[in-house]
Amino acid sequence: MEEKKVSRPLTFQLARWHGFIFSAVFLVYGGVKIILGVLDRNYTDLGQSLLFTLLGLVLISFAYAYNEQRKWGWYGLIAVNALVVVFAIIGYSHIENLVLLVISGAVLYALFSTQTKQYLFRER
To answer: Per-residue confidence of the chain (124 residues) as pLDDT tens digits?
Structure first.
């Protein structure tokens, strides 16, 4: 007898795609900065670019684990979005920080929603 596949709730999917897109931004930014620094023979900001790339790899691992319904991926996405909210509140004078605050707040709501928690933490 085949097991009925449970469809993913919208809140789960929104948080998942935000995690992938957010981490891709860090990966692309860090990678492009590394490539441009090497091509320009300007190695002054190479450490910062490597840090952005490493951070992007960690974030993509959280997003992938969340996609695979691992609890540590859920906790990782919560921690990342909570840090974004805290840093956006600290630098609230810039409009970009307010946009990040709203987006990360909405993702935190999606992560803590009943549908997401029921789907993620159901008995397997």
So the answer is: 445 566 889 999 999 999 999 999 999 999 999 998 888 888 788 888 899 999 999 999 999 999 999 999 999 999 999 999 998 888 777 788 888 899 999 999 999 999 999 998 886 5
- Give the CA distances from residue 3 to residues 6, 46, 57, in Å, rounded to whole numbers and listed in that order: 9, 50, 34
Spatial CB neighbours of 28, under 8 Å, sequence gap ≥ 6? 56
Give CB contacts under 8 A, 24+ apart, made by 65-73.
66/15, 66/16, 66/19, 67/16, 67/19, 67/20, 69/119, 69/120, 71/120, 71/121
DSSP code per residue over 53-113: HHHHHHHHHHHHHHHTT-HHHHHHHHHHHHHHHHHHHHTTTSHHHHHHHHHHHHHHHHHHS
Global pTM reads: 0.83
Q: How many CB atoms lie within 10 A of CB 55?
A: 16
